[in-house]
Amino acid sequence: MKKTEFLLKLKLQKWIGYVKLLTIANQLTDETEIEFEELEQIELTEELMDACYRAFQDDQLDRMVQQIEQQCDVISFFDEAYPEKLRQIYRPPMVLFTRGDISLLQKEIITIVGSRYPTKYSQDVINRLVPNIVQSGQVVASGLAKGVDALAHKAALFNQGKTIAVIGNGLNFSYPMQNFALQEEIVQKGLLISEYLPDTPPRPYRFPERNRILAGLSQSVIVTEAKEKSGSLITASLALQENRDIYAVPGPITNALSAGPNQLIEAGATPIVDFKFNKIKI
């Protein structure tokens, strides 16, 4: 059995959380294919061995895998298509579900994040900055939330660039619904990614989990407007832990949405002071 199919069958057994999945994955050989006999020779609990047995023998899991593979592409930690930068982070996702152009995962990626309720300042900055990013051949990534995320995706597409959306729910959901058309366009012209099974609904705790993937995929993270305590700063913090480059758009100290970027700059992030791309050391 191929490792990707094996990991997907384990993930379909809902009671297996990340740590248990990682425990089994760490026992796998370097070869593409895996035999059940190999797993019988290593140290796993009875509970995890039962999960492995089901992955090899359960016909219902086989049918579920076929249904999922008809809906999307499945990339596991062991596949060549899995992005190397993401492989190196703390708690890398074992399985990714994707729709669109998976070759974008091998390109240089810049993540842009910010407030869900930005002012026109963010829109102006993004509309003038993204064309330079696109012209350089780099891919714009964001989280497909309303606000700055949507602005970043739209700017990339408008300038005939490529964009990656990492979402905090399964691929069969569109959240928020106002971005439904944008999500469909990204599938056609870019790439949609989730670590969750396709029918997984959006939940608040899944979005911070999603942020580690946004941080891990890219070499650089740009924060526009964001409050002092926000998901954007979580993404920036995760990116910093993974030794990524952090850039922030400075703003007036009278604006609460500039508190986040200004705080990042105070802590050592590089301020974006103009739109000349060669001054951003990506």
Weakly predicted, low-confidence segments:
278-282
Let me know the average pLDDT: 94
Question: Globular, elongated, flat, extended or rod-shaped: what is the shape?
Answer: elongated
Instruction: Calculate the terminal CA-CA distance, rounded to whole Å.
Output: 40 Å
From the 3D structure, determine the CATH topology of the largest domain.
Rossmann fold
Taking the sheet with the most strands, its summary is: 9 strands, mixed
Rg of Cα set: 20 Å
Task: Kindly provide the name of the CATH class of the largest domain.
Answer: Alpha Beta
Write a concise keyword list for the protein shown above.
single chain, 9 strands, Rossmann fold, 282 residues, 12 helices, nine-stranded mixed beta sheet, 2 domains, alpha/beta
Describe the structure.
This protein has helices spanning 3-12, 18-25, 36-40, 46-57, 59-71, 84-87, 120-135, 148-158, 180-189, 206-217, 231-241, 259-266, and strands spanning 73-76, 95-100, 109-113, 139-142, 163-166, 191-194, 220-223, 245-248, 270-271. The chain is of the alpha/beta class and 282 residues long. It has two domains: 3-71, no CATH class; 102-279, Rossmann fold. The termini are far apart. Helix content is 43%, strand content 13%. The chain has a nine-stranded mixed β-sheet, with helices on both faces. Helix 1 crosses helix 5 and helix 10 packs across helix 11 (231-241). It contains twelve helices and nine strands.
